[in-house]
Amino acid sequence: MRRPGPRRAALELRERGDRHVDDAELWGRGFYRFYDHVVAAAEYDRMEDFTAEFFEHLAAAWPRPAIPGVRFMHELGRWLDARGLGGSIAATCARHRVPLFVPAAPDGTLSEGYRTARRKGPVVDFFKDYEIAIGLSGAGVATECISWGKESPDGMNVMVFTDFTIALPLLCQGLLERYGPAHVRPARAAIRAELTAVFET
């Protein structure tokens, strides 16, 4: 059930409220809810139309039947950058050749964009991403590692509940201040070679 409106890429945040709300009332007023945030349904639907344009572009630019998930996000970032959305995380990662892993990419606006695209592109092969090892967990809590014997209960264990868009800039700033912009990990050359193969094939 889509609501009509002019096309626009930006998702406009209308209001921030209590997570305990009447969702039926929000639907009737034309809003979608994400926990304690609501957005105008028409704006969100227009973003789905915008992502459909990306899939049509990808179908023409990527002739193979499948694309690795990390390469898919790289191509999305390049496409966004070319359309003046260079401030997005995907576009920034693409410009700096930083791999972006989004396991939930099949959910939300991207999946709807694929569904509504006139020309379907390659299937995203997320299993290819397992070739690149990365130690991130989306649902675990830091204290669980103590029960596995991986962390000491007397260690400096810190667990922060925050939004990714808040935590990422703070984390990057902290790493820059601690190590400096010229810092290179010894294993970086091997990692870069592996990622270059993904980005350039």
Topology:
Layout: E1 13-16, H1 23-29, E2 31-34, E3 37-40, H2 41-61, E4 66-68, H3 69-82, H4 89-95, H5 109-116, E5 123-125, H6 144-147, H7 164-179, H8 188-200
Parallel strand pairs: 4-5
Antiparallel strand pairs: 1-3, 2-3
Helix pairs in contact: 2-5, 3-4
Structural notes for this entry:
The protein is mainly alpha-helical. It is built from 8 helices and 5 strands; from the N terminus they run βαββαβαααβααα. It has a 3-stranded antiparallel sheet with strand order 1-3-2. Strand 2 and strand 3 form a beta hairpin. It is globular and about 50 Å long. The N terminus is likely disordered.
Q: Helical content, roughly?
A: 40-55%
**Which parts are unreliable, with pLDDT below 50 for 5 consecutive residues or more?**
1-14, 133-137
Q: What is the tally of beta strands? A: 5
Shape: globular
- The total tally of domains equals 1
Neighbour order of strands in the largest sheet: 1-3-2
- Percent of residues in β-strands: 5-15%
Rg: 20 Å
Q: How many strands, what sense, and barrel or not for the largest sheet? A: 3 strands, antiparallel
How far is the first residue's CA from the last residue's CA? Answer: 39 Å
| Number of helical stretches of at least 4 residues | 8
User: Element order, helices and strands?
Assistant: EHEEHEHHHEHHH
Mean pLDDT: 77
Assembly context of the chains: single chain
Q: What is the structural class?
A: mainly alpha
